[in-house]
Design a protein that fits this description.
By secondary structure, this protein is of the alpha/beta class. It has helices spanning 13-22, 42-51, 71-86, 105-115, 132-142, 160-170, 187-194, 234-247; strands at residues 5-10, 26-29, 55-58, 92-94, 120-122, 146-149, 175-178, 198-201, 204-208, 228-232.
């Protein structure tokens, strides 16, 4: 039987709890999902570790945008990794590139050494690298345990052929985890065509605010609706988990 599973990208304690209730094997914990995810707060990590049984892997990303970081941003990343070790996280997820699009091997090696024995996975900075095949070998040499990828495309379904090639290239040396746009309608197709066994999804739904008074003129953010927020759905997680179980 294949060891199939779903990792949920959770933007809060509530989302992480929903992921656990839905049957996910692991949570990539983050905030600011509209920017691709940034490092969650100390409190979010602490509460997840104290109250949940699911694996908690916080993302270590000091800001949105690219993956080329200043010296100060790199120091922030190191401090966040130290915090995750103190809180007994199961692992962390990060990624750093050089200006030319290659994996920043020196800085990644420093983070891996700092995190030890806590394992590190590489996020979709991988998809923004200039050569996926070379980047994959770099990650294997460095000692990353897993890489999240859409195959360099806007979503995993469109990157399905590249993902299949990456799974074949990895040959068990590192886990290739397809992510971006995965849902209950396409997860089995992506599984069958890539050969991957663990998948990544935010499984989000919009939650309506319970505010009775609503100021419709003033805005707290540049985009979006203050009276809606997104949260992982245990039902959506469970739909994908059950499909994987039935297909194992």
């Amino acid at each position: 039987m294949e060891n199939l599973g779903l990792e949920a990208c959770a933007n809060s304690f509530a989302s992480a709890l929903a992921a656990e209730n839905g049957g996910a094997i692991r949570v990539e914990l983050c905030e600011n999902m509209s920017e691709g995810g940034t490092t969650p707060s100390y409190a979010q990590i602490k509460l997840c570790k104290e109250r949940l049984n699911i694996q908690i892997w916080p993302i270590i990303r000091p800001r949105g945008g690219d993956f080329l970081y200043s010296d100060d941003e790199f120091e922030l990343m190191k401090e966040d990794i130290k915090i995750c070790k103190i809180l007994n996280c199961d692992g962390v997820v990060t990624g750093i590139l050089l200006a030319n699009g290659e994996v920043d091997k020196n800085r990644c090696a420093e983070l891996i050494e700092l995190a030890h024995p806590m394992p590190i996975a590489f996020h979709r900075a991988f998809d923004m690298s200039n050569d996926l095949e070379k980047a994959l070998e770099d990650l294997i040499d460095l000692g990353f345990v897993r890489v999240l990828s859409s195959g360099g495309k806007e979503n995993a379904l469109k990157g399905i052929e590249t993902l299949a090639k990456l799974v074949n290239q990895a040959n068990g040396r590192i886990e290739i985890m397809p992510g971006a746009g995965i849902n209950s309608e396409n997860i089995l197709e992506i599984k069958e065509k890539t050969g991957a066994t663990v998948f990544h999804s935010s499984a989000r739904v919009k939650i309506a605010s319970k505010m009775e008074y609503r100021n419709q003129i003033s805005k707290m953010s540049y985009e979006g609706d203050e009276y809606l927020y997104e949260q992982t759905s245990s039902n959506l997680v469970n739909q994908m988990v059950e499909k994987l179980k039935a297909n194992s």
